[in-house]
Specification:
The complex is a heterodimer of chains A (217) and B (253). Chain A is mainly α. Chain A is built from twelve helices and no strands. The longest helix of chain A is centred in the N-terminal third of the chain and has 23 residues. Chains A and B meet through α1, α2 and α5 of A and α2, α4 and α5 of B.
Chain lengths: 217, 253
């Protein structure tokens, strides 16, 4: 019985196998780091809402302040999704027969709330407080992106713990004068100098905590 | 080496490019797929959070409205001045004692006015806010009003006599309960803020009807006010004229 001999050309595989062996951990590492990061898995969530409400028209084109609808944002932990009444402040008159507003009208008549889909859902063990951030001058745009340009709202930020901590550990470039929080086009990094931002941080005494218990109770 | 090995090898290498391409696409395009939460821990607990849907109740609301006729502490609504703007059956022309007439209140009023009122009534109170403009545009559409839009020009708060003669309490009442086509803002704006807005509207009326004699002697005033202001300046003089409510209302009228 003749012994099996690898053909001579199979020698070329040896460097190839070594090369692949060296690259493979790097490849797998990068795949896990990028593929499994919250930015990939969680950001970019854009559900289809029951009513095709456009922030781009209301907040962008018309320039209605965020707080006209999200009234509780400066006082409560949550930025309230408005009552149907708020829609009907205007829509009893404007576009009052529009088929797009059918669900709003029926909600107004029956008292059944419109079941909007939550886009920015945090893990249940994290306790975020809108008022604490808004009152101290963290602009809406820092976490929600340019909502005033979104026809359909989607999640810009990963809302992961690492992402929260990034700002909690270095807030200087992410805070603005509290009077500008809802101005989405306004950018503190363009309108203010580095020195001014540091001054603002000291003035408003912004030294965010990064203890576990700050967010996890 | 047989060709097939090279061929398969190259295909396998190309396949390695596929996962990064998919990841890059997922990261760059928003879509309606639910976020994937790999390590669940206690991320989704069986509890109901603010404004959550709750199938246990007929209206699917987790947050329950108060029982009918229930009265919350401190919300008896017996103070007609504070809650309705009325003193002894007459419109109040002063702020209720709970709210101080000062610069802070007027500033607050200005900010709240710009959020809630200016959309229709305009930043300067002239009645040409952005929603008003949009509605007029829809009504004036050449093929008839769009989607049955009806609109009555928003009131000019600073020049229309119907409004300028109104005492502060009446303004407050209108903000709270609405009037004609305007919805009430009682549920959207807290009581203190509604009073602050009413006071600010008075200040706006005063400033929009200012006379040359109001300008302190020696102050230079440029000829043209320019385009519609996007931000109305509150001066100390305006505020001071309101710090004594007894005289200020008469002055404003």
């Amino acid at each position: 019985m003749s012994r099996f001999l690898f053909p001579r050309w199979s020698n070329a595989f040896l460097p190839l196998v070594i090369l692949l062996g060296a690259i493979a951990p790097l490849y797998v590492g990068l795949f896990v780091a990028y593929g499994f990061s919250p930015k990939t898995l969680e950001a970019g969530y854009m559900p289809t809402q029951p009513v095709s409400y456009s922030h781009a028209i209301h907040a962008g084109k018309l320039g209605i302040d965020c707080r006209y609808c999200h009234t509780s944002v400066e006082k409560a932990s949550f930025a309230a999704v408005p009552a149907t009444q708020t829609c009907m402040n205007c829509h009893t008159q404007i576009h009052r027969e529009s088929p797009l507003l059918e669900k709003v009208r029926s909600s107004y008549e029956t008292g059944m709330p419109i079941e909007w889909i939550k886009v920015h859902k945090l893990a249940d063990y994290a306790y975020f407080n809108h008022s604490a951030h808004v009152v101290r001058g963290v602009g809406c745009v820092e976490c929600h992106g340019r909502v005033d340009q979104m026809t359909v709202v989607y999640r810009v930020a990963p809302l992961s713990m690492g992402w929260c901590l990034e700002c909690h550990r270095n807030p200087t470039n992410r805070i603005r004068p509290p009077s500008m929080v809802t101005q989405m086009a306004w950018d503190q990094n363009k309108e203010m100098t580095e020195a001014q931002r540091v001054e603002l941080q000291n003035l408003n005494n912004i030294h965010p905590n990064d203890n576990c218990s700050t967010c996890h109770r | 080496m047989p060709r097939i090995f090279i061929f398969v090898g190259l295909i396998l290498l190309l396949c390695l490019l596929l996962p990064p391409a998919i990841i890059a696409r997922v990261r760059s395009t928003p879509n309606s797929n639910l976020p994937i939460h790999i390590i669940q821990d206690m991320a989704f607990q069986s509890k109901y959070k603010t404004q959550a849907v709750n199938p246990l109740f007929a209206d699917h609301n987790t947050m329950r409205p108060p029982v009918i006729n229930a009265v919350a502490r401190g919300e008896t609504y017996l103070d007609a001045h504070l809650y309705d703007g009325v003193i002894d059956g007459q419109w109040a022309n002063v702020l209720p004692s709970q709210i101080k007439m000062d610069f802070a209140t007027l500033r607050r009023g200005q900010e709240r006015f710009n959020i809630y009122c200016s959309v229709c009534h305009g930043i300067s109170g002239g009645g040409n806010g952005i929603v008003n403009q949009r509605a007029m545009e829809l009504v004036a559409n050449t093929n008839g009003p769009v989607n049955g839009t009806v609109w009555v020009q928003a009131k000019n708060l600073v020049h229309d006599e119907l409004v300028t003669v109104q005492p502060m309490g009446q303004l407050f009442n209108t903000i709270t309960y609405g009037i004609r086509n305007m919805a009430g803002y009682g549920s959207q704006i807290p009581t203190e803020d509604r009073w602050a807005i009413a006071a600010y509207v008075k200040a706006l009326q005063r400033s929009q009807n200012a006379l040359p004699s109001d300008v302190p002697a020696g102050t230079k005033v440029s000829g043209n006010a320019g385009p519609t202001p996007t931000h109305v300046q509150l001066s100390n003089a305006t505020v001071n004229s309101f710090t004594n409510p007894a005289t200020s209302i008469a002055e404003v009228k």
